[in-house]
Specification:
heterodimer; A: mainly alpha
Chain lengths: ~110, ~80
């Protein structure tokens, strides 16, 4: 089944790239809410892609892979939402766009004039 | 196989960047969010390892790990919410 292998390896590589992008979003984003957004969405899509890809490479594992993907699809947004609510109840206010613009200008040292 | 090395390098880079936020994060919910993301990445890398080892037992381990990590996230977030 060469078609399934090609499709599976493509999906696995897309998933690995999205895991890397999720980690990058966790470092680069300025705020807890932005970090939750970037990290959770990227790693949810990465998990879908990687686990379904592994299931396509070995078709007899596909049922277990789909079960894991369904579980992640249910639990990951719930976990993210619970963390965001905890942060809000602890009194962390979201960044407004004006504060964020100031922070961007401040961190780049005023080098580029935009 | 060289493709597996590239996959694992990408997943490891993502995990290391998340670990940086986990150690460095300014507030406690930052660290909890980083731990949540890190748990998802570890689940994915367990599945990837089952592909390399050709052993479907690791898929069950990944499922149990995902369940326990979800429980841990919810419990810690609830604890943070209650304490003012």
């Amino acid at each position: 089944m060469i078609i399934l292998d090609i499709l599976g390896y493509t999906l696995v590589s897309i998933g690995a790239v999205f895991y890397f992008l999720g980690g990058l979003g966790m470092v680069r984003m300025p705020d807890i809410y932005n970090r939750l957004q970037a990290g959770t969405k990227a790693t949810t899509l990465g998990s879908f892609s990687l686990i379904i890809g592994v299931g396509l490479i070995n078709p007899e594992w596909l049922l277990k892979a789909i079960i894991i993907v369904l579980f992640i699809a249910i639990t990951n947004p719930v976990g993210s939402s619970v963390i965001a609510r905890a942060a809000l109840k602890r009194g962390i206010v979201p960044l407004t766009s004006a504060e964020r613009r100031e922070e961007d200008i401040g961190s780049s040292g005023g080098g580029d004039g935009k | 196989m060289i493709a597996f090395s590239i996959f694992f390098a990408l997943v490891l880079l993502g995990a290391l960047l998340t670990l940086y936020r986990l150690l460095r994060g300014p507030t406690v919910p930052d660290r909890v969010a980083a731990l949540d993301i890190l748990n998802v990445i570890v689940t994915g890398s367990i599945v990837l390892f089952s592909l390399i080892d050709k052993n479907s037992l690791f898929l069950d381990i990944a499922l149990v790990y995902a369940a326990l990590s979800f429980l841990e996230t919810v419990v810690v977030a609830r604890y943070l919410e209650g304490r003012k």
